[in-house]
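Tutorial handout. Part one gives the primary structure; part two gives the three-dimensional structure as tokens.
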Amino acid sequence: MSVEVSPMTANIMIVAFIVEVSAVFIALLVPGNLAPGCPLTNNQAALALALCCVAWFLGIMLAKALARTLGLFISARHRENPLGKVRTLHKFQDQFWQLVVHSSMGVIETYILFGEESSKAWFYDYASMWTPRQQSETSTLWSVLPSNPSVHALYLMQVAIWSVTFFSHLFIEERHKDFLMMSIHHLVTIALLAVSYSMNLVAIGTVVLFLHDTSDIVVDLLKLANYLKLEGVRRGCLVELIFVTNFFTWGFCRLYKFATLILCSGLYGTREILTQPFEPRMESFTAAAGSEYTRGHRPGFKVGDGTFNIWENILALPTHTNIPGYWGMNTLLVILWSMQILWYCLFIRMAYRLLNRQQASDVAREDYEGTSDSEHENEKQD
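Part two.
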């Protein structure tokens, strides 16, 4: 039994999905929209994205087949045979392929951020993270993006993954209580990928993806363990242990690190970097000031020296061409972080119920997986 979703809500999400994904493909075909360093032409990039969507869809089908074999093998050795119900088995398969996706993307993002010399500073230095990497023969102030195929490949795969998972969320998977919130999350993430790539802010995009994918691995393991009812002393207390682990990893990555590393630097540092006195297109403002100064920057200003006045800068340059995506990018990030807070409140509620000695599988099913109370009663009667 699925959670009821109004037809209007479902139709709005379907239309939004079609419009957003179509816009991404159209944007790829427009000359000049590819970030510097991309080894593909516009037509090649659009074709590669389409093929990547197909490849991920087939890969998901393969992962689900593997999950079915593996899940039934483990479940058969459990006294209650937890995957005996078809619905539960389907949920297990859906979660398993998400684990495959998050794990594989997490490995690639870890390699880019900590294994490649050209991008090692992105995770630690907010100036490096937020500086648009634009190839230019005339400007030495803007960093040059190396021809680093791994970053472009990551974006290609991520857009394909989020498009395919959004399609699956809308048309294939059972709709849970958090259908609307998950749909909005997919829309915001695809938009964030598109905006960060079009502005050539691939560094911040990579860091955001890393924080999300690596923390989602623990969430996936929690759900899989719950479906298999690996709780209690007899089953190694796996559900309980993974839940505690997830409580801290989610809070650290999605709330603390996202706020301090992404939001603080984005709301403050982005403007500081993009409106430096001698950045491209800032020449007229600098000349009008009569010195190496523009509103918000003192003469001799250096990024991160603590002298930048963001409010004076915003009042002076509210819609400067250097920052066409400043408001959009940071709005999307704030929405994303707000959703993380709501989900974390759900974890806190689960922790409270677990401390009150409710069965771990019941808590996870009712609170986290979005199963309605009436649906849970039907399962008990089966």
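Part three, for discussion. Residues 135-147, 370-382 have pLDDT under 50 and may be disordered. Residues 238-274 form the longest helix (37 residues).
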